[in-house]
Amino acid sequence: MEVLSIKGTNQFPEILLDMNKGILKFSGNSLPEDAKGFFEPIMDWVDNYIQSPLLESSITFKMTYYNTPSSKFFFQILKKFEAIHLKQSAVKVIWKYPEDDIDMRDAGKDLSESIKIPFHLECYKE
Asked: Would you place residue 88 in the very low, low, confident or very high pLDDT band (cuts 50, 70, 90)?
């Protein structure tokens, strides 16, 4: 499973995970009723990737809204990347938020304080 691509909907985020490029992208809404079931293939992909990561990996979030279960999975993903960042691979996180969305900015800020990975907060105009 080198590339995992999930088309976004109002309930599910758009996701692109590419082993060959070392990129993970999450965008849109994440409100799955069964978060464990939705994130299971994503976590499998991450577990597979971190076994032999590229020298550089990039994780980009451009979320509109996400629920608490999604937040927990995002945190778990970042913790897995934190482990390889500290040992063998340069990892960076890009957290994009609309310039008028203070809550999304603060969510990124809170995550950045909990994870030992370089975090870049980037605001954009909608």
From this structure: confident
- Contact by Cβ (8 Å): 27, 8: yes
The C-alpha torsion from 122 through 86 and 58 to 46, rounded to 10°, is -130
10 Å Cβ neighbour count for 101? 16
**Strand ranges, E, within 1-126:** 3-6, 14-18, 23-30, 56-66, 90-98, 119-124
Least Cα distance to 84 among 109, 115, 121 occurs for: 115
Query: What's the CATH code of the domain at 106?
Result: 3.30.750
Specify the number of domains making up the chain: 1
Which pLDDT tens digit goes with each residue over 27-54?
999 999 999 999 999 999 999 999 999 9
Q: Full-prediction pTM beyond 0.90?
A: yes
Domain interval for residue 21: 3-124
